[in-house]
Amino acid sequence: MRVLVNGAGGRMGACVQRAAEEGFHGAELAAAVSVRDGSLEGFHGPADCIIDFSDRAATAPLLEYALGRGLPVVIATTGQTEQDMEQIRRAAESIPVFRSGNMALGVTLMCQLVKTAVKAFPSAQVEILETHHTGKADVPSGTAVMLGEAALAVRPGAHLTVGRPAGHGLRDENEITIHSLRMGNIVGTHEVIINAGTQVLTLKHEALDRAMFAEGAIIAAEFLLRQKPGLYDMQDLAAAL
């Protein structure tokens, strides 16, 4: 599988490039390119799949390139607008597209555990705490949103909020709140705290090495090569393992 890595100049893009060069899951590096410097458009060599670890601004030109060459694409960036998501959905009508706010299989399993726990404690208070390095731009993290959406899926009438405004800390009984910390060089830690009054359940996932996300992206790319056009995510990948 020849992988075309977009955003290779960034931390995660470099991780994917290294994993492909080392032959993880039989991957080969087709090229390391960037939408921003035009090297993506200048690449005309053979490739089987694109993996994008750049930023949401690359979504539109990346999809245009993928559609033009009929290449499956793994979008591992976060922070997409609704307009970006509509472009992703349209592209998925013609090519296989994989998108996830977190490429770690452990996070997928955590989402499933969150659903089970929140459903078991229907009146519990749910809070989400995410911590990342100081260089992470988007708030909240895509993973925190995934975990929040997992809770919402089994909590009818609840809504997701981000932080609390100064001077007003009273809790809405229907809220599921995300809190974001940015410090040091922390790769990524996510906690879901479920307080049922008489007991507290805390689910936690800690990323120890960014290579985890790169490996997940390559496994997702391998999965896409076997799929028809459509929009896929980590739930689909987990079900196929």
Which short descriptors sum up this protein?
241 residues; alpha/beta; six-stranded parallel beta sheet; five-stranded mixed beta sheet; 11 strands; 34% helix
Structure, explained:
By secondary structure, this protein is α/β, with parallel strands linked by helices. Helix content is 34%, strand content 25%. The protein has helices at residues 11-21, 59-69, 82-91, 105-120, 142-153, 211-224, 234-240; strands spanning 2-6, 28-33, 49-52, 73-75, 96-99, 125-132, 159-162, 175-182, 188-195, 200-207, 230-232. The strands form two sheets. It has a six-stranded parallel beta sheet with strand order 2-1-3-4-5-11, with helices on both faces. Strands 7-8-6-9-10 form a five-stranded mixed beta sheet, with helices on one face. Helix 1 links the parallel strand 1 (2-6) and strand 2 (28-33). Helix 1 (11-21) crosses helix 6, helix 2 (59-69) runs parallel beside helix 3 (82-91) and helix 4 packs parallel to helix 5 (142-153). 38% of the residues are buried. The model has no long low-confidence stretch (mean pLDDT 93).
